[in-house]
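Hi V.,

You were right to ask for the full record rather than a summary. Here it is.
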Amino acid sequence: MRSYKKITLWENRRAVKDLKDYKDLVITYFNNIRRSPLADVVQNNKSIRARSRINQARTRISDIFIMAGVNPIILCTPPPAIGGATSRIDLVTNVFMMHQHHIEPQALIDMLEVAIGKYNDDYPKAKFRTFTPFFWVGLLLNFVASLPFMFLGKMGLDQVRIESSLIGRLLKGVFWLATFLAAVLSILHLLGFLEVVKRVIGLPTSTQ
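Predicted structure:
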C-alpha cells in the first residue's frame, strides 16, 4: 500500500473527504445513543443509519490511516482495583466497543483529525507531483515490480505481509531496478542510441 506522500492530489482530497465524513458519522452516532440502566445501547434512527455507514466505511478508513502512518491502536490498561492484562484496541475496528474499555469517542476523533492534518499538510506536494511526469513513471515501475506479489496474493497468500517484509522489499527493489533498466534500454533502442551506449561502456555491439 502506498504512503500518503506518494498519492495524487485527487486521492489526497478523497482521503480528506472520507475522513471528515467518517468523523461526522462518529459524532452523529455517539450523540444519538444513550445507555440504559443495564448499560445496553439504546439507539434512534439517526444512530442506526450512522452505524450502518460507519461499518461500510471501516475498511476504507483503516487503509487511509495506514497510508498516513497513523496508528489507530491504543493500549488499554484496566484500573488497578480491577486488574487484568493490557489490551491493544483498534479504535476503527472496535468503534462500537470503546465504552466497554472506558474509552471516550474523542480518542477516535483526535486520531481522525491527526490523519486529516497529515493529508492537508501534504496537499501542496501532492499537487506538484501529480503534474510531474517522473511521478507517473515511478508509479508504473512500482506497479510492474509489485506484479509478482499480486500473483502470490491471488494464490491466497498474505500479499501485504510478504511485500512489506525485509526479503519482500529487497526483491521488490531488484524487480524495480530490472524494470527500470529494461525501460531505459528499450527507449535507447527506439531512439537508435543503444549501439552507441554499448560502444561507450565497452559491451559487444550487434555489428561486432
